[in-house]
Amino acid sequence: MNIGEAASRSGVSAKMIRHYESIGLISATRRANGYRSYGPKDVAVLRFIRHARDLAFPLEDIRKLLALWQDRSRASGDVKRLALDHVAALEAKATSLQAVADSLRHLANHCQGDDRPDCPIIDELEGKIA
Amino acid sequence: MNIGEAASRSGVSAKMIRHYESIGLISATRRANGYRSYGPKDVAVLRFIRHARDLAFPLEDIRKLLALWQDRSRASGDVKRLALDHVAALEAKATSLQAVADSLRHLANHCQGDDRPDCPIIDELEGKIA
DNA sequence: GTTGACCCTCCCATGGTGGGAGGCCCCATC
DNA sequence: GATGGGGCCTCCCACCATGGGAGGGTCAAC
After folding, report:
1. So which domain of life are we looking at (chains A, B) (predicted)?
2. Phi first, then psi: what are they for B49, rounded to 5°?
């Protein structure tokens, strides 16, 4: 099948399929006319990638996950370690964003939010407080 | 003062100061030799920007915040609205990241993590389950 | 008068994705 | 057999914010 059909079957855009090929994450055979040609296995790989992206794995992790997937003698411990490292990174980012949101919400709670100019948010940014 | 001193006094890198100027967020006067010249007010502006960045405001929001800051007749409601919108965006992202982390952690909890290849994480990515 | 620290501009990279231009290919329909 | 439309190709640009570095000018101190 051509790239368009592989895209719609896998849920990965044609644009991204070409990009993944350009960074060596996947490969494709070419027809005589230069068109990329894909089979069911390629679609399975693309779906794997999409699911991993849904779990926010960075592409470099996905590269390793693909290798582990295709390694019949893999140790599940390697997969788990990769996953837990990623979970830790996600949680660190989530926690950090939430902390920032909390402190800004705290500031906003003390802002009247009316027509007057006085505003603790501006004061904080200005450095009057912090 | 030159850009280097403005950078160290404000906590904004010289690189970023030049960038902020290039996108029209700030401006700078030039000396005869072409060097940018900054005064205390400029440093205050840079600090304002840095504090806003610490609160993860995007630069386009900061552009508006700077205008509000310098508008003596501003309505604090405008500032508050901007801030609360931003808080909502931050919380949405934090929640989404945490949700992804949770589901991946759940998968990892069911993975033995030993030397055997069987791994529910890989199964999920492969689409065997989902 | 040289050295070293600072400044200048311009380009490139990150990470993942989308948009679009310009051009080729293939099939169907007239 | 010609034409039209949709799909495919490559290559460049954009986002967002930041950092790195090359190649070259400037200034101060020694």
Report:
1. Bacteria
2. -60, -45
